[in-house]
């Protein structure tokens, strides 16, 4: 009995540490819940309840009606974006569920993930963000001076942000400081050459500072009904965006005092000659972002490709007369579909490719235009900011819908669905709902390690190794 209890603790420890690692790195609540249940179900443990909130993962297990419940709770750390670690967590879960690794091997591997060295040093991350800032300005039609200024400012922001975070400064103030620095850099460009479109420096920096927000994960949780986690993530996104707006507004007030004109320049129209500019800009933005969030090297090229395609697609649709919100929604939907298919082939988290693909679609120019108008016309400025909010919602909602359609198509086609396929499902509130979401085990067998089986089979107090039969290998996901 002591051995069984020790093994039960080991299974729960593996599952909850993987769940906490995924949650910390931005995975949606449905994905964390499904992965934790897969791990526990593969060990033969039934009657388990998993709860995921904004900063906590908990597991509760009742062996039988007369026994005391067994509960484990693990708090998530500060939310970061390290896609190398996210991939490591998902790969360990995949190997364990499929039977490619034992419990002991998986436990040893999971212990190494938090302390693993980053894929790229801090200086390379700063260089990647500088590349991303310069590419954003270049794609908006900036000249050499403005592009160089955006590149230098982005590099400075990377160093400043890392320094402030290390000193435990609240992120609200970190964002505000970043917004002010961006506006100050634009003022410097205007003083050097008033004829240049210095406002593009601010727009490029806004895109960089907004890129780190978890809006897609928040939108996925909200759409699928995980409202507790979604409300906390959305509040975090809103507060950090407000901090950024406060910083930019402070910089604009300083520009007014100095007599600097930071008005918005007309966006570059897409033509045959500008297509290479858009493609190069999008690819460099995707590459810079991927490096900044520690994406594994083997996925960098794919991140650049999907970002370039998204940038060109959104600009072409907008140039044909389609409203920007619909153009962004359609493009992000396509990016979501491509990301899931790519994740299956590359064996990497779909979130890696989704986030890189939507980076060129961030509505930085609309946010900046709204901030400029607020000083002279509050109604017009608020309307412009509302437009930016519409684009942001379309971006996130389109990406989530694309992932949902692709995941559904993979499941309907009979292909093996892996841990890397995003799980977009409502909370499992009732047994009937769990069966509807999970479906029935493939082949009509009751032995498969599926979520449906985990919820319906009799309880057992002795965890076992993951099954190696065909039913276990064809895992159902919610």
Automatic annotation (TrEMBL):
- What is one GO biological process annotated to this record? succinate transport
Native source organism of the sequence: Brachybacterium nesterenkovii
- Which positions fall inside the Threonine/Serine exporter ThrE domain? 283-403
Instruction: State any GO CC term.
Output: plasma membrane
Q: Which residues cross the membrane?
A: 137-159, 171-192, 198-218, 238-258, 270-292, 299-318, 324-341, 353-371, 391-410
Q: Does the keyword Cell membrane apply?
A: yes
UniProt keywords, alphabetically: Cell membrane, Membrane, Transmembrane, Transmembrane helix
**Threonine/serine exporter-like N-terminal domain mapped to chain residues:** 13-251
Q: How does it sit in the membrane?
A: Multi-pass membrane protein
Report the locations given in the UniProt record.
Cell membrane
Q: Which GO terms describe its molecular function?
A: transmembrane transporter activity
Q: What protein does this entry describe?
A: Amino acid export carrier protein
| Record-linked InterPro entries | ThrE-like_N, ThrE_2, ThrE_Dicarb/AminoAcid_Exp
Q: Indicate yes or no for the key word ATP-binding.
A: no
Basic and acidic residues bias locations: 465-478
Q: Where is this region: Disordered?
A: 435-478
Query: Family, per the entry?
Result: Belongs to the ThrE exporter (TC 2.A.79) family.
């Amino acid at each position: 009995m002591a051995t069984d209890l020790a093994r039960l603790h080991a299974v729960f420890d593996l599952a909850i540490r993987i769940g906490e690692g995924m949650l910390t790195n931005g995975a949606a609540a449905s994905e964390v819940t499904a992965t934790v249940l897969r791990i526990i179900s593969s060990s033969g443990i039934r009657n388990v309840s998993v709860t995921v909130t904004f900063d906590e993962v908990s597991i509760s297990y009742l062996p039988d009606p007369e026994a005391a419940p067994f509960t484990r709770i693990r708090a998530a750390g500060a939310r970061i974006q390290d896609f190398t670690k996210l991939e490591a967590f998902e790969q360990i879960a995949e190997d364990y569920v499929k039977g490619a690794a034992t419990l002991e091997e998986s436990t040893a591997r999971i212990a190494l993930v938090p302390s693993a060295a980053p894929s790229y040093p801090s200086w390379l991350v700063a260089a990647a963000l500088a590349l991303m800032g310069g590419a954003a300005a270049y794609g908006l039609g900036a000249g050499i001076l403005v592009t160089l200024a955006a590149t230098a400012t982005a590099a400075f922001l990377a160093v400043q942000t890392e320094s402030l975070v290390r000193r435990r400064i609240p992120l609200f103030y970190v964002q505000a400081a970043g917004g002010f620095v961006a506006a100050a850099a634009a003022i410097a460009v205007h003083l050097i050459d008033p004829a240049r479109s210095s406002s593009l420096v601010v727009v490029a920096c806004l895109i960089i500072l907004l890129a780190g927000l978890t809006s897609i994960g928040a939108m996925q949780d909200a759409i699928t009904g995980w409202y507790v986690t979604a409300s906390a993530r959305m509040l975090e996104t809103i507060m950090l965006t407000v901090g950024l707006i406060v910083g930019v507004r402070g910089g604009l007030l300083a520009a007014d005092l100095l007599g600097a004109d930071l008005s918005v320049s007309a966006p570059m129209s897409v033509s045959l000659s500008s297509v290479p500019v858009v493609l190069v800009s999008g690819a460099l933005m995707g590459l810079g972002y991927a490096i900044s969030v520690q994406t594994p090297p083997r996925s960098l090229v794919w991140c650049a490709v999907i970002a370039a395609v998204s940038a060109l697609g959104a600009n072409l649709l907008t140039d044909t007369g389609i409203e920007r919100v619909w153009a962004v929604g359609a493009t992000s939907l396509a990016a979501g579909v491509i990301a899931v298919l790519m994740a299956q082939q590359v064996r990497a988290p779909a979130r890696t490719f989704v986030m890189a693909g939507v980076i060129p679609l961030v509505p930085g120019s609309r946010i900046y235009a709204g901030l400029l108008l607020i000083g002279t016309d509050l109604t017009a400025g608020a309307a412009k900011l509302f437009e930016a909010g519409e684009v942001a919602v379309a971006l996130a909602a389109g990406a989530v819908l694309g992932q949902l359609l692709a995941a559904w198509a993979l499941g309907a086609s009979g292909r093996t669905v892996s841990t890397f396929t995003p799980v977009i499902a409502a909370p499992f509130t009732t047994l009937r709902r769990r069966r509807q979401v999970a479906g029935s085990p493939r082949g009509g067998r009751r032995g498969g390690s599926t979520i449906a089986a985990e919820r319906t089979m009799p309880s057992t107090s002795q965890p076992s190794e993951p099954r190696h039969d065909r039913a276990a290998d064809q895992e159902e996901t919610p």
